Recover the amino acids of this structure.
């Protein structure tokens, strides 16, 4: 793919993921190698003081990464970071969005800096992040 | 006790293989359908030397192939039921593709108390290289430990 033409104010990242089910978490547990029982074992989650299991933060970051590389060619991605702002619950439907906020002159190439968010169906922030994409 | 003396602690380096079947299982689990990750022709057209991994998969590979994926937590005396993921970042140097053998070297870079010790933030950095030593990515994560220590 050729270099994406991105300008400040563009909002190229926009994707809504399916609601998170127990099956989603079980499959992600196995496929990601993250076997922390907090995300699949109700007894363990309750003993730790939670009402129920909750999503792996990295599952939601994977959704955000998916939304990102739907919008920009993956070979152009130079950096990707997130802060996990709140726990993502069962049933949550994650909406991923991203806006270009800056064009930077890097050492070897021009970079677009995007601010990314993952929110639930009520608009509550779950992840807030950034990406650098070569343009 | 979890304190700044943990800074510098390194876990056993992990060698991990990027295997096609495991990668497909991950793509299925996250609902990723883009041909660039599944169709060798689409990957080649994008300039990759093989099927690339999606942006967060490096985090998974280290856990998948570690003898004990929670070794670092165990070394620091951190109970799995007390942790949350605070932050995660990836700085990519070169794409990792199916068939690669990667090396993951992780070490603790910071231990910071918050809220009078009710929370402890542990920073871990991971250098990812090929088995030939070429840099693939630098990853960083912050682990939030709840009630890491009595107030």
């Amino acid at each position: 793919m050729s270099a994406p033409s991105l300008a400040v104010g563009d909002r190229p990242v926009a994707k809504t993921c399916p609601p998170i089910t127990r099956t989603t978490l079980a499959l992600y547990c196995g496929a990601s190698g993250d076997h922390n029982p907090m995300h699949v074992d109700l007894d363990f989650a309750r003993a730790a003081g939670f009402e129920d299991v909750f999503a792996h933060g990295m599952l939601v970051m994977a959704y955000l990464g998916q939304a990102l590389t739907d919008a920009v060619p993956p070979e152009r991605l130079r950096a990707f970071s997130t802060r996990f702002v709140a726990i993502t619950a069962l049933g949550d439907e994650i909406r991923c969005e991203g806006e270009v906020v800056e064009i930077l002159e890097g050492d070897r190439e021009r970079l677009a800096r995007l601010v990314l968010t993952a929110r639930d169906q009520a608009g509550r922030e779950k992840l807030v992040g950034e990406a650098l994409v070569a343009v | 006790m979890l304190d700044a003396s943990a800074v510098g602690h390194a876990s056993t380096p992990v060698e991990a293989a990027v295997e096609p079947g495991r990668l497909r299982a991950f793509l299925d689990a996250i609902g990723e359908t883009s041909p660039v990750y599944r169709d060798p022709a689409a990957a080649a057209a994008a300039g990759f030397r093989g099927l690339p991994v999606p942006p967060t998969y490096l985090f998974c590979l280290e856990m998948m192939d570690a003898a004990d994926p929670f070794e670092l937590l165990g070394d620091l005396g951190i109970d799995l039921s007390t942790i949350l993921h605070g932050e995660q970042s990836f700085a990519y140097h070169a794409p990792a593709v199916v068939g690669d053998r990667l090396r993951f070297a992780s070490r603790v870079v910071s231990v910071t108390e918050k809220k009078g010790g009710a929370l402890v933030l542990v920073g871990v950095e991971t250098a990812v290289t090929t088995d030939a030593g070429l840099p693939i990515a630098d990853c960083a994560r912050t682990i939030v430990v709840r009630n890491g220590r009595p107030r």
